[in-house]
Amino acid sequence: MHKTLGLTSAAVLGLLAIAGLAVGSDERGGWWGARGSEEARESRFSRADVPSVSFAPYTDACGSCHLAYQPGLLPARSWDRIMATLSDHFGDNAELDPAANAEIRRYLADNASDRTGFGRAPAFARSVAAAEAPLRITDTPYFRHKHHELPQRLVAENPQVRSFSNCQACHRNAEKGVYGEHDIVIAGYGRWDD
Amino acid sequence: MTTRTTSAGIVLALLLPAGVGAAPDAIQASYRAQGAGPFDAQAGASAWQRNIAAAGETRSCSTCHGADPRQPGRHPRTGKRIEPLAPSANPQALADEGNVEKWFARNCKWTWGRECSAQEKGDLVEYLKQL
Questions:
Q1: Contact B55 A91 (CB under 8 A)
Q2: Can you give the pLDDT at residue A46?
Q3: Which pLDDT tens digit goes with each residue over A10-24?
Q4: How many angstroms separate the CA atoms of B89 and B93, rounded?
């Protein structure tokens, strides 16, 4: 009787431990990934891969010309570089008055890939060498790894996409921070099945 | 009348636009206070189309906003849609003075390599508001 109980308990504990490891160790960070910022906590029950943007000043200032890229996609040091060089922002003048700049810089730093524990953000952060501060999300090793199978004709040579920076052309819920394979419909091509 | 109806009425009244002409006129008034004016829509139209060579490319207002400000524009690199700048097509366009000044500052520098004068801004607003 005792032996059976002991074995059963051990089996149950073992299964729980394995389940716990499975939930905790996948690259999305599982339940334990949802710490840190308020945005991370709000995004916890969504399908977001990085916390979605809920800070209106950022969307207003940085979503007029392109997707308001989620802060969880780059490390804080990259965001700092971008905010310090807005008058020449990839060839455009995106300058802000000092107060607005400071406010957005703070928001980006607080929610950067190396600050939020949520979803894929830590994986993005880990892939970037400490000495590097890439300006482009598309230059991060994690990004490149995830997109290396795509032929040119689907992206650069595809007039409806043109650039990897144009996330929402393929990732249909990019604005919500959802980048998983189930939401990919490549413009002019169709659903992408991994 | 119930409280709910009154509240709804107030909300509705606040949402109704004060008049499409109000904000651009107010913006021009502050340019006049800086000594600019009278404003000329034709000068604004010419300025809109003026091509400047910069950084190996040709730039003008129409580069992003299109030749016809009543139509949506498109960012040349990202492809992002830009809402029309003519208030007749888009009442939000010149509605907020702070917003207008922010975009004038950036875009005059990018397009013409310098800030626009109050006269130039007033002429451009004159052109846009009568479209």
A1: yes
A2: 72
A3: 666 666 655 555 444
A4: 9
Tell me how far the alpha carbon of residue A80 is from its chain's centroid. 17
Q: Provide the CA B25 distance to its chain's centre, in angstroms.
A: 12
Mapping DSSP to helix (H, G, I), strand (E, B) and coil, where does residue A183 land? helix
What tokens appear for A19 in the block?
A: 């389940």
Nearest Cα of chain A lies from the Cα of B128 at a distance, in angstroms, of 20
Convert the pLDDT of each residue in B115-128 to its tens digit: 999 999 999 999 99
**Per-residue CA distances from A133 to A87, B30, B92 (Å):** 18, 43, 37
Regions of chain A where pLDDT drops below 50? 22-35
Q: Answer yes or no: is the ipTM higher than 0.90.
A: no
In this complex, which of B78, B82, B109 lies closest to A166 when CB atoms are compared? B78
Per the CB < 8 Å rule, is A66 touching B109?
no
Burial B92-102 (b: 16+ CB within 10 A, else e): ebbbeeeebeb
- To the nearest whole angstrom, how far is the Cα of A33 from the nearest Cα of chain B? 32
* Partner-chain contact B106 A66, CB within 8 Å: no
B39: its two tokens: 């404003």
B119–chain A nearest CA distance, Å: 22
Integer Cα distance of A18 and B107 in angstroms: 57
Q: What is the pLDDT averaged over residues B85-106?
A: 94
Q: Which residue of A has its CA nearest to B114?
A: A93
User: Is residue A28 within 8 Å of residue A119, measured between CB atoms?
Assistant: yes
3-state class of B80 per DSSP? coil
Secondary element (H or E) of residue A191: strand A190-191
A67: which chain B residues are within 8 Å (Cβ-Cβ)? 80
Confidence of residue B22 (pLDDT cuts 50, 70, 90): confident
